[in-house]
Specification:
alpha+beta, Alpha-Beta Plaits, two-stranded antiparallel ribbon
């Protein structure tokens, strides 16, 4: 059976939970990256305002290739801080 995809997929990451100012450092987690069979998410450095805009401690996960999402919802299931939402 093949799932019919209706509507455009939207993936949001709550950066107050996962990100530079979040509850966890995404570099120490990466569960969503490991769980996803497709290359939907990207872990990358973030340039921030402040004294040291290139501080290497600022990282975040961004859904880059959203069209690759199969809507399996495994990323939501494994996120320890419930930072991911998927809708369409």
């Amino acid at each position: 059976m093949i799932a019919v995809r209706k509507g455009k997929t939207k993936i949001l990451i709550d950066l107050s939970k996962c990100g530079p100012d979040g509850d966890i450092d995404p570099r120490n987690c990466t569960k969503c990256l490991k769980q996803c069979d497709r290359p939907v998410f990207h872990l990358h450095h973030v340039i921030v305002d402040g004294d040291d805009s290139w501080d290497p401690s600022y990282w975040q996960v961004t859904p880059v290739y959203i069209s690759q999402c199969t809507r399996c919802m495994r990323c939501i299931d494994v996120c320890p801080v419930n930072a991911i939402s998927v809708s369409w």
